[in-house]
Design brief:
Helix content: 25-40%
Distance between the termini: 30 Å
Structural class: alpha/beta
Radius of gyration: 18 Å
CATH class: Alpha Beta
Number of helices: 9
Number of strands: 10
CATH architecture: 3-Layer(aba) Sandwich
């Protein structure tokens, strides 16, 4: 007996246009009608070492086609849940990036996120370097307060360095200054950091909870979740260098000693039960540093699994 997805085109992962998970492309941001809207933010002028994250959105989209076999959702036998079966995803393409103009580029990213929020969809932004989080968080200015959950190797809490306030070392500091950001959980922070001690002191003074990978592993997922305010609205920002470079080498600032896939999936799964995820970005994928494509595949797999859990039926 056949299945409904056996009719029509087979549409294998390597066939067709690489929208995110082969979701419909919606170029008109005034006509967003979906549960989830994907926005590319191919901006990497904020990097302090290796550039290349401007190609992150393309890389993640292409990798995401691996998981788009046309089945009715994605069945997880461990959870006994079919994820994404009824989740409507659209891909809005990319925010327009004006080369060398950070303010204009960030403004275009913010406009895209505001359009998504205005439609009632969940914004999922593909970076780009971590500075793209600044306009993403700015777009929530007229929303209810959010608690920022950051997965990252680096604190990104620099106030100003040589006049730079909107680079990829600044986003968590800029977020902490926003009245609608109720707090920040900074998870995975380790090793030699781009933020000096005074930045760590400022972060804690301004309400950050800073946890390293080793501290996370010592306490476990449940204890980490207990440190995050329950029942809150969570904005999740994932720097791919929060993962170990053994599985995510394709990034501009890799840092050894990072997370493995299931640690973060289990944590984010728990987060979706603890409160409401209202926004998500994944940044710093630079595909040219990983010719295997594994980093982009990790990013796409994590995003699809998290989106699935946000909209999971009765889980």
């Amino acid at each position: 007996m056949g299945h409904e997805y056996d009719t029509g085109r087979l549409n294998l992962p390597f066939v067709g246009i690489s929208t995110f998970a082969k979701a419909p492309y919606e170029p008109d941001w005034t006509k967003i009608n979906a549960d989830v809207a994907i926005l590319g933010a191919p901006f990497d002028f904020g990097t302090q070492w290796r550039a290349g994250a401007r190609f992150g959105p393309r890389g993640i989209r292409e990798a995401s086609t691996l998981f788009s076999f046309g089945h009715a959702g994605a069945y997880d036998h461990e959870d006994d849940v079919t994820y994404l079966a009824d989740t409507r995803i659209v891909d809005l393409g990319d925010a327009d990036i004006v080369h060398t103009d950070t303010v204009a580029s960030h403004g275009n990213i913010e406009a895209g996120v505001r359009a998504i929020l205005g439609s009632g969809a969940l914004p999922v932004v593909l970076g780009g370097d971590h500075s793209v989080n600044i306009p993403c968080v700015a777009a929530f200015s007229d929303q209810k307060p959010i608690h920022l959950v950051q997965i990252d190797a680096h604190l990104d809490f620099v106030d100003e360095r040589h006049g730079v306030r909107f680079g990829h070392g600044n986003p968590m500091r800029r977020a902490a200054e926003r009245s609608w950001v109720s707090g920040i959980s900074q998870i995975g922070i380790r090793n030699v950091s781009s933020t000096a001690k005074d930045g760590y002191d400022d972060a804690r003074r301004m309400g950050s909870d800073i946890v390293s990978v080793r501290q996370f592993r010592t306490m476990g997922v449940d204890a980490m979740l207990d440190r995050i305010p329950g029942g809150a609205r969570y904005y999740v920002t994932i720097d791919i260098d929060g993962f170990d470079p053994s599985i995510a080498p394709g990034t501009g600032t890799p840092s050894h000693g990072g997370f493995l896939y299931y640690e973060i999936l289990e944590f984010l799964d728990g987060l979706t039960h603890r409160g409401t995820v209202v926004g998500l970005d994944l940044v710093e994928v630079a595909p040219d540093y990983d010719r295997s494509g594994s980093t982009a595949i990790l990013a796409a797999q994590l995003l699809l699994n998290v989106i699935g859990r946000v909209f999971a039926p009765n889980v």
